[in-house]
Amino acid sequence: MTWPPDASDPLVWAAGAGVLLLLWLLIRAGRSSALTELQRGQERLAGGLAALAEAQAAAQARMADGIAGDAARTAHALGAVEARLSAIDRAQARIEALSDDVLGLQDILANKQARGVFGEIQLADILAKALPPDAYSLQATLSNGRRADALVHLPEPPGPVAVDSKFPLEAWEALRRADTERARTEAARALRRAVLKHVDDIAERYLVEGETAGQALMFLPSEAIYADLHAEFGDAVRAGFARKVWIVSPTTLMAVLTTMRGVMRDARMQAEAGRMRREIGLLAGDVARLADRVGKLDMHLRQAGEDISAILVSAEKAGRRAERLEAVDFGEPEAGRKPAA
After folding, report:
1. Residue spans of alpha helices (H) in the chain
2. 135, 143, 192, 230: least buried by Cβ within 10 Å?
3. Is the pLDDT of residue 13 over 70?
4. Which residues of 91-126 are buried (b: 16+ CB within 10 A; e: fewer)?
């Protein structure tokens, strides 16, 4: 065969047609495979996009739930913070009120007259809590013209007990502030003198023979002063014992008043027992008189019974006589026959 081949040759045409057919078949087969792969790819892509959409939706749902939970926890935390802030505000208000009260108390204690009134008010409050209203008197005036802060009405003996409030605050504060041994010694002497003067005043004013008990109470409206007095000034306390003046604090006064209330209760029970004994004696007399009168009545009843029996006997005899009289024949007697005698 010559080269290049003749284009008019039928074999060449046949060969060319076969080649073209083969190429066409190859191209068509490739296109079909490519289309199939493209279709499969599109399906895989669609599946991936759907899975991605589902994953994104789930993630968004989880995110929404997390945000909601975080919001709830945040709201709860904010509520707790708000409650704590409110509690802090209330506590601050109470602290401010307490500070005002403390400042007011300091103002009261700084004035001697106001300090005395403070002690009297505290004494009255303790008495009201420990005793019934009729068991004590406030600002009681004695026969010597002196007026005690309170008078506890104990029965005889020992009799009414005077209670007077004393508050040696200035001398005690001077002792607390003393920063040298000399200053402390001088302040201790001043406090001792103040206490002893109060003891002497109470003994002279409120121990009245035949009117009050032989002992009185000196009320210290401060547990701190009372504790320091017993810890460091035992001689002043013993001096009070010698003058029959017992020094008491709010706590010990309550204990003493509780004991006094027991004494009052026992005295009232004894008085009631005495009254009951008198009433029982009177009742026994009434019973004796009743028994005597019942005896007399019984005697009269027995006599009446005997009289009734005698009357019945007489009535019975009279009845029999009446029967005999009824049986008598009151007709004319026969001739030659004498009437019955």
Report:
1. 10-110, 112-130, 169-177, 181-206, 223-232, 234-242, 250-327
2. 143
3. no
4. eeeeeeeeeeeeeeeeeebeeeeebeebbbebbbeb
75-119 pLDDT, tens digit each = 777 777 778 777 777 776 676 555 544 434 454 444 555 555 778
Query: What's the structural domain count of the chain?
Result: 1
Residue 117 lies in a domain: yes
In a domain, 54, yes or no: no
Sign of torsion over alpha carbons 130, 133, 137, 139: positive
CB 225 within 8 A of CB 173: no
- CA–CA dist 216, 110 (Å, integer): 27
Residue 138 · residue 153 · CB < 8 Å? no
The phi-psi region of residue 164 (left if phi > 0; otherwise alpha if psi is between -120 and 50; otherwise beta) is: beta
Query: Residue 77 falls within a domain, yes or no?
Result: no
Question: In the beta sheet, which residues pair with residue 219?
Answer: 165, 248
